[in-house]
Amino acid sequence: MTEDRRSLFVAGLKNAHAMENQALSIIKPQLSRIENYPQVAARLEQHLRETEAQIKRIEDILAGLNEDNSTLKDWMLSATGSMAALGHTMADDEILKNSFANFAFEHFEIAAYNALLVMAEMCGHQSSIAGLKENLSEEEAMARWLSNNLREVTSEFVVRREAGETAKV
């Protein structure tokens, strides 16, 4: 593997590690606030566990390259995720805002893993491909779930709002 390709791959892995930490900082506050959407809470809880496993897979790949994650990138993106999650708490349609943001973020992660797979192939780092594909598969499944359930979540939000019930979360 050439040094330039290796450097790009390692940088991408460090970015993915930080991205997954950002995902945790987005998911955890949402989970702590959801009361009226148990299907969303259950899927977010599942994805929280998947995200923790994804972080471990990335750490294993980095260790195989004798590299470590970037604490600064992890901290910066976690802070950004926390701020985004906090911003939605003030919205009357918090559940919808979270659904939209989660959908967009999942697609960002899908793009990142697709790029990392190309880099892994170009670097000849075959041992990382299975873990990256597993992460990609989990992100694609979450994106599909969000897409398939947006109609139900939106309908439930509207019905709750019309009934004067708590419609936020």
From TrEMBL:
UniProt keyword terms in alphabetical order: Coiled coil
InterPro entries: DUF892_YciF-like (IPR010287), Ferritin-like (IPR012347), Ferritin-like_SF (IPR009078), YciF (IPR047114)
Stretches of the chain forming a coiled coil according to its record: 41-68
UniProt entry tagged with the keyword Coiled coil: yes
SUPFAM superfamilies associated with the record: Ferritin-like
Protein name: Ferritin-like metal-binding protein YciE
Organism: Rhizobium rhizoryzae
Pfam families referenced in this protein's UniProt entry, alphabetically: DUF892
Superkingdom of this protein's organism: Bacteria
Keyword Coiled coil: yes
